[in-house]
């Protein structure tokens, strides 16, 4: 890295964030394009009650250029921004913040990250999708699925939270323990943190509900192959790794942060090489 006092800081925050592969992915792209003197990408664990302090720091630090938010900060950060992109506003979550002339602008690239890899394997129109979770990532995925005219059922531990989200996006919801409906789905998506440490030995649904006709997509990417994906493979389902979502939301984010075309294959190589 050719870091100087003029290098622009891009930072990912979350709790936890130690597992994140975003710094390695973005920094490899900076090096490849020869702009590692202009940008550096770092990470930091931040508690949700301290998100406002991070945003305030971004405002006063001239070279603090971009902020990436992961679990559980994608909704909280919105309170402190100057402007929010209409798509991110509709989703109700922000994962990417860019400072332009001192103005903090919020965007969401998660929905692209989820939809692009799914569309590579299936036409989403009229497909039945069981989505597990109702947090910031789930909101982005549901937005993308509805945009592509998929039929979505939201499953969540909090039925009220699922109901509220279903009302917003004009789709269905169900209690998480009512998993018979999942058997009828074309696609199952885990948009929770179940499968990531310390829950790496767990699955968000009963795996008996998975069959050979389904696609199973887990947004958790550490470990690369979660227990859910392993079990889905055993049952003959087609699987999509969370690394694909990380990659495609990351390439869109890279272009927001730098204004340059992302070197997608370089970024992909780093992600898969790290696992």
In words, what does this structure look like?
The two termini are 23 Å apart. The chain folds into two domains: 8-108 and 245-273, Leucine Dehydrogenase, chain A, domain 1 (Rossmann fold), CATH 3.40.50; 111-240, NAD(P)-binding Rossmann-like Domain (Rossmann fold, 3-Layer(aba) Sandwich). Strand 11, helix 7 and strand 12 (238-240) form a beta-alpha-beta unit. With 275 residues, it is of the alpha/beta class. 44% of the residues are buried. It contains nine helices and twelve strands. Strands 2-1-3-5-6-4 form a six-stranded mixed beta sheet, sandwiched between helices. Strands 9-8-7-10-11-12 form a six-stranded parallel beta sheet, sandwiched between helices.
Q: Write the CATH architecture name of the largest domain.
A: 3-Layer(aba) Sandwich
- Give the full name of the CATH homologous superfamily of the largest domain: Leucine Dehydrogenase, chain A, domain 1
CATH class of the largest domain, named: Alpha Beta
User: Biggest β-sheet: count, sense, barrel?
Assistant: 6 strands, mixed
How many independent structural domains?
2
CATH fold topology of the largest domain: Rossmann fold
Strand order of the largest sheet: 2-1-3-5-6-4
Q: What's the structural blueprint in terms of helices and strands?
A:
Layout lengths: L7 E7 L7 H12 L5 E7 L5 H10 L3 E6 L13 E2 L1 H6 L4 E5 L2 E5 L2 H10 L8 E5 L3 H12 L3 E6 L2 H11 L2 E4 L11 E4 L24 E4 L8 H8 L3 E3 L1 H17 L5 H10 L2
Parallel strand pairs: 1-2, 1-3, 4-6, 7-8, 7-10, 8-9, 10-11, 11-12
Antiparallel strand pairs: 3-5, 5-6
Helix pairs in contact: 1-9, 4-5, 4-8, 8-9
């Amino acid at each position: 890295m050719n870091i100087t006092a003029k290098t622009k800081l891009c930072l990912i925050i979350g709790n936890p964030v130690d597992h994140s592969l975003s710094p390695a992915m973005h920094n490899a792209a900076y090096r490849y394009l020869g702009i590692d003197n202009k940008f550096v990408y770092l990470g930091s664990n931040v508690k949700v009650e301290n998100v406002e302090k991070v945003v305030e720091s971004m405002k006063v630090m001239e070279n603090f250029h971009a902020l990436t938010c992961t679990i559980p900060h994608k909704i909280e950060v919105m309170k402190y921004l100057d402007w929010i992109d209409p798509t991110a506003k509709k989703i109700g979550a922000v994962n990417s913040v860019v400072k332009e002339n001192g103005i903090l602008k919020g965007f969401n690239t998660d929905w692209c990250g989820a939809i692009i890899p799914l569309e590579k394997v299936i036409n989403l129109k009229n497909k039945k999708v069981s989505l597990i979770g109702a947090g910031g990532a789930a909101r982005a995925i549901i937005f993308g699925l509805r945009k592509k005219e998929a039929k979505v059922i939201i499953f969540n531990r909090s039925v009220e939270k699922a109901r509220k989200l279903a009302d917003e996006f004009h789709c269905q919801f169900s209690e998480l323990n009512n998993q018979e409906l999942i058997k009828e789905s074309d696609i199952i998506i885990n948009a929770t943190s179940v499968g990531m440490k310390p829950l790496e030995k767990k699955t968000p649904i009963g795996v008996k509900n998975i069959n050979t006709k389904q696609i199973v997509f887990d947004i958790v990417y550490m470990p690369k192959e979660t227990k859910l994906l392993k079990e889905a493979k055993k049952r003959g389902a087609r699987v999509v790794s969370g690394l694909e979502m990380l990659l495609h939301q990351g390439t869109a984010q890279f272009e927001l942060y730098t204004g340059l075309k992302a070197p997608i294959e370089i970024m992909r190589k780093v992600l898969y090489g790290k696992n």
